Amino acid sequence: MLNEIETLPEGLLEAGVSDLQDLLGGPTLMHLPGRRPEPLFVTVLSHGNEDTGYYALQALLRDYRERELPRALSVLIGNVAAARYGLRRLDEQLDYNRIWPGTEYMDGPEVDMMRQVVDIMGERQAFASVDLHNNSGINPHYACINRIDNQFLHLAALFSRTVVYFIRPLGVQSMAMSHICPAVTIECGKPSHKYGVEHARDYIEACLKLSELSREPVHSHDIDLFHTVATVKIPEHVSFGFSDDTADLRLVDAIDHMNFRELPAGTQLGWLQGGDALELDVRDENGRPVQERYFRIRENALVTTRPFMPSMFTLDERIIRQDCLGYLMERLLPESG
Fold it and tell me: At what angle do helices 194-209 and 52-63 cross, to 10 degrees?
């Protein structure tokens, strides 16, 4: 399934994301030379509706059309089939950012493809890895890491002072690549925002210009570090919505405005219809059910039981079904890791 190429395809610098399936034929790993031989590895369009990374890369490569890159650059252009329709993934597909080595999924063509990519980048001695994403809800620009390590923290802080450490979900690109080189996931806000493209483009260029990543500690006042402690999913048998009074759970209209705000205990997230109990799928970073630790039902309202900070809460009901409602975080000081 994987196309591996050593040159820039004709037309790539002008193509929109919906054109890539016809232009490339499928997921494509592209290697471009640069002054320093150890490549920066960049992944774009792991989710077909998250286009900022692709347009940032396109802008960068236009600027370097007649110039040598400061460092070799390897790029995986991922789910071009879903990108044609502006979707996170097609219904028959696995999530391209849940199938990297370490995934919970059984072997299959897509899982094998991501293992192949990791092997290739290991052989090429990747300098660092950057996986570019968007959010569907309201979130700041932030970086994610899967290891509390000074080089990882420096790579993340180069993009944003807001940094999130997580070890779930499994099978993500940054976690797989963390065994080879410093790796980050970069969250660039909502798709199609001009500032997101500019910020991501400048970040990729800054990474290309690095000669090394510092091993010195990152000062605690230079970053805001958070730890993802739980994932919130809505089970298939539970109906939900934002305006449907007949659904089992009616969520508050602007739930995505809660992202990256420290919510006090007692914050209401929704209402129950016709009952005083609700089964959510809330799991900690070890996969254990922890609904009672974070939520309870009070007078038919879903409320929080303790302070936490949510991320990636979204209003997109399709994404909630395909992935999750969002994540719960707590503050973490760099020196405590």
Answer: 60
- In the numeric block, the tokens 């500019």 are attached to 198
Greatest extent of the chain over all pairs of C-alpha atoms, in Å: 65
Which residue pairs, CB below 8 angstroms and at least 24 apart, start in 144-150? Answer: 144/174, 144/184, 144/185, 144/186, 144/187, 145/174, 145/178, 145/183, 145/184, 145/185, 146/172, 146/174, 146/175, 146/178, 146/183, 147/178, 148/334, 148/337, 149/182, 150/214, 150/215, 150/216, 150/217, 150/218
DSSP character at residue 111: H
Q: Give the C-alpha separation, 218 to 35, whole Å.
A: 28
Region of residue 126 (left: phi > 0; alpha: psi -120 to 50; beta: else): beta
Please answer whether residues 47 and 72 qualify as being in contact, where contact means their C-beta atoms are separated by less than 8 angstroms: no
Query: The tokens of 187 are what?
Result: 């969250």
- Rounded Cα gap, residues 79 and 93, in angstroms: 9
- Contact, 177 vs 124, CB < 8 A? no
**Which domains can be identified in the chain, with CATH numbers?**
3-218 (3.40.630.10), 230-328 (no CATH)
Burial class (CB in 10 A: 0-12, 13-18, 19+), 287: exposed
Q: Give tens-digit pLDDT for 199-230.
A: 999 999 999 999 999 999 998 888 999 999 99
Residue 173, Cβ density class (10 Å: 0-12 exposed, 13-18 middle, ≥19 buried): buried
- The whole-angstrom separation of Cα 207 and Cα 175 is 19
More confident residue, 117 or 220: 117
- Claim: this prediction has a pTM higher than 0.90: yes
Nearest by Cα to 30 from 4, 64, 10? 4
Encoded tokens for 280: 């959510």
